[in-house]
């Protein structure tokens, strides 16, 4: 790779990293506003116009609070836990294509940090490592409530990763690829995978709630019984890193669902619009760049809709009991995911036979 390409890639990675942190920061604001709307309250309205500076005030509070480490904790692991959770969360967006391709100075610049032909496995593998941050933090705290939360997180992630992985197999059977860029490209226009995999999407969506420890699957940190769960003993920015990691995981889960099932950056009449712009501007490069930037906007609109859905569900549904959570994962979602694989395989064979 030439030095110019490396510069473009470095700028893109820095931009995506900054956007990820900004979205995670302001997700706290919008969650509180959505909760206030649902509960007929006002929400944050003091720090800045309409409370828009509230996330910055919260971040400043976390940065400047006294750092506290319990006396009988495993100090090195106590510090390592939130670090692992944060690093793993920020790594997972590296293979997501947020747009198609820009033409800059005669060069093709793909709006994707890293293109690997096993992008789906990369995301799945990296996200599954996040549970180590929760386990280490809960165990190192030397607190029984933290340990119970960590054990719940580990068992919950293991249970729902199986159903999530099985739901992805049907997508791989249809697309014949593990590359997120290729999967996105195959959904050009309005040929989105959601039309062919509605059951697989529902399974993936439910598992995404469980993997991100969001209500109604927030058993690892349920305040009513575990006082906060695995991060009970945490304060200052170490607690902030756990909270940031959760919101980054929501952002990544939303981006993955948008890419796998809702066409990623593709939108209806995209190719027709590019052809019309090429005629209107008499420049194929300009038309390509305009449509690509519109695609980036469409991609983030889909992501924000999913993030809103995560927040809406949190303030709408009650928490499951732990036995209900395990039953849903093992006795309902896994059999449904296997059924979806069988149905998808049958549809593929039938299509090849008829056409």
From TrEMBL:
It is an enzyme of class 7 (translocase). InterPro entries: NADH_UbQ_OxRdtase_su1/FPO, NADH_UbQ_OxRdtase_su1_CS. Signal peptide: none annotated. Pfam families: NADHdh. It is found in: Cell membrane; Membrane. Keywords: Cell membrane, Membrane, NAD, Quinone, Translocase, Transmembrane, Transmembrane helix, Ubiquinone. The chain crosses the membrane at residues 6-29, 77-99, 119-141, 162-180, 192-210, 247-270, 290-312, 332-350. Coiled coil: none annotated. It comes from the Bacteria. PANTHER family: NADH DEHYDROGENASE SUBUNIT 1, NADH-UBIQUINONE OXIDOREDUCTASE CHAIN 1. NDH-1 shuttles electrons from NADH, via FMN and iron-sulfur (Fe-S) centers, to quinones in the respiratory chain. The immediate electron acceptor for the enzyme in this species is believed to be ubiquinone. Couples the redox reaction to proton translocation (for every two electrons transferred, four hydrogen ions are translocated across the cytoplasmic membrane), and thus conserves the redox energy in a proton gradient. This subunit may bind ubiquinone. NDH-1 is composed of 14 different subunits. Subunits NuoA, H, J, K, L, M, N constitute the membrane sector of the complex. Belongs to the complex I subunit 1 family. HAMAP family: NDH1_NuoH (MF_01350). This is NADH-quinone oxidoreductase subunit H. It comes from Pontibacter saemangeumensis. The lineage of its organism: Bacteria, Pseudomonadati, Bacteroidota, Cytophagia, Cytophagales.
């Amino acid at each position: 790779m030439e030095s110019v390409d490396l510069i473009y890639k470095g700028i893109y990675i820095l931009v995506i990293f900054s956007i990820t942190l900004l979205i995670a920061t302001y997700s706290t604001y919008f969650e509180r506003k959505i909760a206030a709307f649902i509960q007929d309250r006002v929400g944050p309205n003091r720090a800045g116009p309409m409370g828009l500076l509230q996330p910055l005030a919260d971040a400043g509070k976390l940065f400047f609070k006294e750092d506290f480490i319990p006396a009988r904790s495993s100090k090195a692991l106590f510090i390592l836990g939130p670090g692992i959770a944060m690093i793993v969360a920020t790594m997972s967006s590296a293979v997501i294509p947020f747009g198609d391709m820009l033409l800059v100075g005669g060069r093709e610049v793909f709006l994707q940090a890293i293109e690997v032909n096993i992008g789906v496995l990369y995301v799945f593998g990296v996200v599954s490592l996040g549970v180590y941050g929760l386990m280490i933090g809960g165990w190192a705290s030397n607190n029984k409530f933290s340990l119970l939360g960590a054990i719940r997180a580990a068992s919950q992630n293991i249970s729902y990763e199986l159903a999530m992985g099985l739901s992805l197999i049907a997508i791989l059977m249809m697309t014949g690829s593990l590359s997120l860029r290729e999967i996105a490209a195959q959904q050009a226009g309005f040929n989105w995978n959601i039309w062919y995999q509605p059951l697989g999407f529902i399974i993936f969506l439910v598992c995404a709630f469980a993997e991100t420890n969001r209500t109604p699957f927030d058993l690892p940190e349920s305040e009513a019984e575990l006082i906060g769960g695995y991060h009970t003993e945490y304060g200052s920015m170490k607690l902030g890193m756990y909270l940031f990691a959760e919101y980054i995981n929501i952002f990544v889960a939303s981006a993955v669902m948008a890419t796998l099932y809702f066409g990623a950056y593709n939108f209806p009449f995209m190719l027709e619009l590019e052809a019309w712009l090429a005629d209107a501007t008499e420049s194929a490069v300009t038309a390509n760049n305009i449509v690509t930037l519109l695609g980036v906007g469409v991609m983030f609109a889909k992501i924000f809709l999913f993030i809103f859905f995560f927040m809406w569900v949190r303030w709408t549904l009650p928490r499951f009991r732990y036995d209900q959570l395990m039953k849903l994962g093992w006795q309902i979602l896994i059999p449904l995911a296997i059924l979806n694989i069988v149905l998808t395989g049958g549809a593929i064979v039938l299509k090849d036979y008829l056409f």
